[in-house]
Specification:
By secondary structure, the protein is an alpha+beta fold. The chain has helices at residues 5-24, 50-54, 123-126, and strands at 25-33, 41-47, 60-65, 71-79, 81-90, 109-111, 128-130, 135-140.
């Protein structure tokens, strides 16, 4: 079938744009384990830079009711690049991570890469590379 030049080029351009827009963003799934109690909510925060993490400016966030001891959190439209994830389980519903007198969290928490930390995490310790194929992270809460 013959398609006139202008229409053919337009269709080809539209197809290329659709391909590029889907190729640049992908899904990020986060598999959480270590939720000790089926209680409260989990807050998942995705940062796209060290500056964003330092200034508490999240790229994406999600809050889900805890319904089981292992959960899957799903984000769409996450472009390729470096990211860091922080998670905590809000057991008492006050929307913040409770800490003891010396500043150690006393609610379950976790990070991308599951690092062993002494002190607050840095973006460099948590960062991972999001690819156009998507990603599944496993995060264990402490």
């Amino acid at each position: 079938m013959y398609i006139p030049g202008f229409v053919g080029r337009t269709l080809l351009s539209l197809g290329a744009m659709l391909y590029c827009s889907t190729a640049l963003s992908s899904d990020l799934s986060i598999r959480l384990s270590g939720l000790e109690q089926i209680k409260g909510e989990v807050l998942v925060v995705v940062y796209d830079s060290a500056t964003g993490m330092k200034n508490h400016q999240a790229f994406k966030t999600d809050i889900k009711a805890v319904t089981e001891k292992n959960m899957l959190i799903h984000f769409t439209d996450v472009p390729e690049g470096e990211y860091a994830v922080m998670v905590y389980q809000d057991l008492d519903g006050n929307k913040k991570l409770n800490r003891n007198l010396i500043g150690i969290p006393n609610e379950p928490y976790g990070f991308s890469n599951n690092p062993s930390l002494m002190g607050p995490p840095r973006f460099e310790q948590l960062r991972f590379q999001q690819t156009k194929l998507g990603q599944v992270l496993n995060i264990s809460l402490n």
